[in-house]
Write a structure and sequence with these properties.
single chain, alpha+beta, FAD/NAD(P)-binding domain, D-Amino Acid Oxidase, Chain A, domain 2, 2 domains, 8-stranded mixed beta sheet, 8 helices, 30% helix
Length: 375
């Protein structure tokens, strides 16, 4: 899926940088609102993406509300979370999670954006210039400046659209883990298919979830890398779960996960959303739900910019407030994950006393089941 950047117009009402859930949903919402919109993505679609792959009930509800329910047709489902830590195990029954392959999911969202009238450019990098224009650069070296009244940046943790602008500098947590993951062929044991299984250790954590076609989404976050690099670290974190899965190819990494932007807007027309605006561990797919919510919200602010009614700082205030609400539970879990003894005690307590687990699970919208081994 690719468009030659030389064929696009010289200016747009809105330019969205990044073709993940945040970018595609935001661009589509703008186009539906009558905004002439360009979406730029540096990769060619479909493309692999490191992600836990789990869509929460709130994320699924948002997709349905936005008319994007078809993007998750044929996806996997999970209703049980099993956690393994230091030989201790616990099982939590959670509301239905939808498991997606980002290569398939993001492509579906991009097609929905195109159907709404968004102009798409793939295989092309983008950089926001000081004057608010966007510089496109194709793999062949072709450069093109695009004028824009509003720019929405949704290029993720490793994006470069704002590189060089000190206002948007990352503030990275020194204790953050580095993410890694892959989509692998199904193993012989299909009893995992309705579960999300997480294995935790003092060095990090990793999880496995099953797609609708039987393939498995594997993702992890490690604070210590051994000689085996990303593959070796992921296998170590998975432990016995790695058996039957070939991780020798396709494992990709992402930068340190827990981070915050110094700013999420500038000049009254550059707005940052999704992972590009900041992320908090753990790494199990929450970022997609946050991104979709950001995309819903940002369209209204972009419209205000276009009609001249925007109040500078409004997006910053809205996003920071939204992030505090979204990331609160993850901050608690992240704190536990950085303390192995505490984590092992919590898992053991939930396994031994289901009533304790009920109280904990209620915080995350689930319920606790009796402890048991991985089936």
């Amino acid at each position: 899926m690719r468009t030659d950047p030389s064929s696009v117009l010289s200016s747009y009402d809105a330019v969205v940088i990044g073709g993940g859930p945040a970018g595609c949903v935001a661009a589509r919402s703008l186009a539906i609102g009558g905004v002439r919109t360009l979406l730029v993505e540096k990769a060619e679609f479909p493309r692999a993406k490191v992600c836990g792959g789990c869509l929460s009930p709130r994320a699924v509800a948002a997709l349905v509300r936005l008319g994007l329910g078809r993007a998750i047709e044929g996806a996997g489902e999970a209703r049980t979370l099993r956690v393994i830590w230091g030989g201790r195990r616990a099982c939590v029954v959670v509301p239905r999670r939808v498991i997606v392959d980002r290569a398939v999911f993001d492509l579906a969202l991009a097609r929905a954006a195109a159907a709404a009238g968004v102009t798409l450019v793939f295989g092309c990098g983008a950089r926001v210039k000081p004057d608010g224009s966007v510089l496109l650069r194709s793999e062949s070296g072709l450069k093109r400046f695009i004028g824009a009244k509003v720019v929405v940046v949704a290029d993720g943790l490793g994006g470069t659209a704002l590189r060089g602008d000190s206002r948007f500098a990352w503030q990275v947590s020194p204790t953050s883990a580095v993410g890694m993951g892959a989509v692998v062929a199904a193993g012989s044991d299909r009893s995992w298919d309705d579960q999300i299984i997480m294995s935790c250790s003092e060095h990090g954590y990793a999880g496995v979830a099953t797609l609708g076609d039987g393939r498995r989404v594997v993702a992890g976050a490690s604070r210590v890398f051994g000689a085996g690099g990303a593959v070796g670290s992921l296998e170590s974190l998975l432990g016995a779960l790695a058996g039957g899965m070939d991780l020798s190819r396709g494992v990709r990494g992402v930068p340190q996960l827990t981070r915050r932007r110094g700013a999420v807007e500038a000049d009254g027309r550059v707005l940052v959303i999704g992972d590009a605006a900041g992320y908090v561990e753990p790494f199990t797919g929450e970022g997609m739900a946050w991104a979709i919510e950001h995309a819903e919200l940002v369209a209204g602010f972009a419209q205000e910019i276009l009609v001249g009614s925007y109040v500078p700082g409004a997006w910053d205030a809205c996003l920071r407030r939204t992030q505090r609400r979204q990331q609160g539970a993850c901050r608690v879990v992240s704190g536990v994950l950085r303390r192995p003894r505490v984590g092992a005690m919590v898992v053991g307590a939930v396994g031994a006393f289901p009533a304790w687990g009920e109280a904990i699970a209620e915080l995350f919208g689930g319920s606790c089941a009796a402890a048991g081994g991985v089936r």
